[in-house]
Structure prediction request, 171 residues.
Amino acid sequence: MDTLEAIFSRRSPRHYQNGDVSPSELDTLLRAGMAAPSAGNQQVWHFVVIDERRILDKIPDIHPYSKMLKEAPMAIMVCADTSAETKPGYWIQDCAAASQNILLAAEALGLGACWLGLHPREERKEGISQLLNLPANISPLSLIAIGKKGEVKPPAGRYLESHIHKNGWQV
Prediction:
C-alpha cells in the first residue's frame, strides 16, 4: 500500500478478529514508530508491547474508551523517558509522531489500529503506570490497540476547505 493510500484509508476500528499480530508485523510497527522525527533527534520514546490477555482485559477499568482491547490481541503503549530529554517538553510531539507512524504502518500492513489517548489525563496515566509498573520518569502518551480488523469503515473524508488559511488568518 502506498503512503497516501494508507493515510486516506486509515480508520480506528473498535472490533478485531481472532488472530495474532506476527513477530515480523510487530517488528515493522516498532521500527515505524522509531522512524518518526523527534525534537533535536532526542528519541526519548519507549514502547511497551502488551500481549498478555489478563493485562489487556484490565485496561478498560483504567481507560473508559478502551473496551476494544478485550478483542484486540495486542496493544503498544508509546511513552517517554522524560529524564533523558534534551529538549524539555517536546516528548509529547515526539511520541505523537511515533504513534502516528505506528497507525500508518498498521494500515499499510492490513492491520487495524486505534489510538487511545492517555496524556494529558492524569488518572489514565497514573492507572496505566501502576498496571505496567512504569518508573516515575516514564510518561505515557498513547496506547494503540492492534489486530486484524473486525470491521471495515469507509474513508473519513475530513477535508474542510474552510479550515485552510493562506498567508494569515482569513475566514
